[in-house]
Design goal:
Helix 2 packs across helix 4 (about 185-195). A seven-stranded mixed sheet has the order 4-3-8-13-14-1-15. A six-stranded antiparallel sheet has the order 7-6-5-2-9-12, with no helix packed on it. About 20% of the residues lie in helices and about 35% in strands. The chain is of the alpha+beta class.
Length: about 220
């Protein structure tokens, strides 16, 4: 299944995407608008006055009331959000601003906020979860990832928690999701996702609700 992750609320109603790993296709309503080659960038901004999205880049320009989707050409690789900064206090120089598959900027009238949203398959989402470290015990990692997958599937199935903001889970307050950078740092967690692929918790053949606390004194 596909999950939509609210990465963050913007402070300037815009996002800049750079194609670092593979070319990026920019689409609107299923139609290819333009193409970013490696190391090319484009910025999309929501104009609150005119209620339109404005797209600007070396090879991409446009203006529309509909959103623009940035998709990795292979529908798998990561893309860089160049104007986003999410450092790690314990790892100088690290910045978790790369995310797989698809990114979009979307304004939601219900909360008067403009969000950056990452859409990707649940198994890839889980590989970017940062609820445990790479050195925690393997069985703990597997148990935690089964709980995390079940929790994610519960919200995918209901689709109500953040429905008025057009995403499924929040990257900070639902489950801590840091994207592609977490995958690179935590290969053991990635292995735990693969080892438990598709496994969820059920009770009497119904998906169970599995809130968890990954670390507590």
């Amino acid at each position: 299944p596909i999950i939509r992750v609210g990465l963050y609320k913007t402070v300037d109603d815009q996002m800049t995407i750079t194609s670092r790993f593979v070319p990026i296709n920019v689409l609107q309503n299923g139609t290819l608008i333009c193409h970013l080659n490696i190391d090319e960038s484009a910025t999309v901004r929501f104009d609150r006055t005119n209620r339109v999205y404005i797209l600007r880049g070396s090879s991409c320009t446009g203006q529309s009331g509909d959103i623009y989707l940035f998709q990795a050409e292979d529908r798998r690789s990561a893309m860089e959000i160049s104007d986003y900064n999410r450092p790690l206090s314990w790892l100088p120089g690290a910045n978790d601003h790369t995310f797989r598959n698809q990114l979009e900027l979307r304004y939601t009238q219900a909360t008067d906020q403009t969000w950056v949203i990452n859409e990707l398959p649940i198994e890839w989402y889980l590989k970017g979860i940062a609820e445990t470290s790479n050195v925690s015990p393997p069985e703990f990692q597997r148990a935690l990832l089964v709980a995390a997958r079940t929790y994610a599937m519960y919200h995918v199935g209901r689709g109500t928690k953040h429905a008025n903001e057009h995403f499924t889970v929040d990257a900070h307050f639902d489950q801590v999701y840091r994207g592609y950078g977490a995958e690179l740092r935590d290969p053991n967690v990635v292995a735990a996702v693969d080892a438990t692929r598709g496994k969820i918790v059920t009770y009497q053949d119904v998906l169970a609700i599995t809130p968890y606390y990954s670390r507590s004194d």
